[in-house]
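Appendix B. Chain record.
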Amino acid sequence: MRDPSRYARTDRCPAASRQRRTIVLGLATALIVAPSLASAQVAPPPTAPPPTTAPPTPSLPVAPVPSSTDFNAGQSAGIAVSDLGSQFLRRLGDQASYGFSRASRTNPGGGGASEAAETPRFRSWAEFYGVGAHTSTIGDFVGDKRRIVGGVAGIGARLMPGVNVGLSVDQSHTTIDVPLALQSATLDLTQIGVNASVDQGAWTWAIALVHGFGDINSHRDTGLGLASAGYNARIDGALTELSYYWSYEQARIVPKAAFEYTRATTGSMQEFGGLNPVNASGASAERARILIGAEVGRYWIFDQKILDLSGYAKFVDNVHQRFSAVTVSLGAESITVQGIGESQYGADAGASASLSLSNTARLYLNYDGKFRAYSQSHQGTVGVEFKF
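Structure tokens predicted for this chain:
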């Protein structure tokens, strides 16, 4: 017989076994699911949104502005007008007070002729000259070079013993180069002058007046063609001089003191062509100066001709200079530039060689130099004079 209790134990074992398997499976499932749940409960850190960049703002076009050097050729032309007026005044003064001419008016034969000898009453003269000049850099002005050629024709008369008058015309052509500013210009100037002198013993008082007018044509290289302009120029001037003629045998010393005044103007200008053409207002320049110096000379007589050599030097004091400001405009933009003047102090110096072929014909050569702190000019003149 079988033991019933054995069956009972046998029946209970499968149940216990299943229970154990259930527990093991539950634990395994927990071990597997728990990390997944934990990881699911931890949220990932938030990701920062990418920075947003504002769209670029389109830049507004910049209005072109004139340069301070755009009017350099006009400034140089103003210098040329003033210098030409001053040079013409000086030549007119020399016609009246040049030592050899002064001696010839009272001693026409030179050397031994009698003062009572009748002198020709009228005279005429013609001159041809060339000038080389330059001005150095001053402020916004980058410097220039000027070349001048011209001619003078004149006629004079002796109204009475010791009183002489003259009338002459000067025509000149000036070429201006401002290389550092890529600019150039030309000036054609006509000047009309009158002079008069009064001799009283060894003293001579002379006066000269000048009025001139002309045209300026300027060109500026803009990189995209030439900007050109045309405008006018005017010059007015006066000179008065007092001299004393002292001689010893065939030599002489002639101390001189003079006062000179000039006023030059240039008209307004408007450029055409090129890139960004500009316009500029008119300009004026006034100058008053005192000149003190002396002429030293000597003459020789040979073969019925007279050779005269002389030289002079003068101290120059520009006691007054005034230059108007010039407004240079480009569209709605504008700037102001100032005129160019001379240094207050300077010197003039020169030399002359004269050959009198007869009592009525004379040839002469002149050199005239102007020396200032920022500028120089050198002029050579060849002339002929006839008396009748």
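Further analysis of this model is presented in Appendix C.
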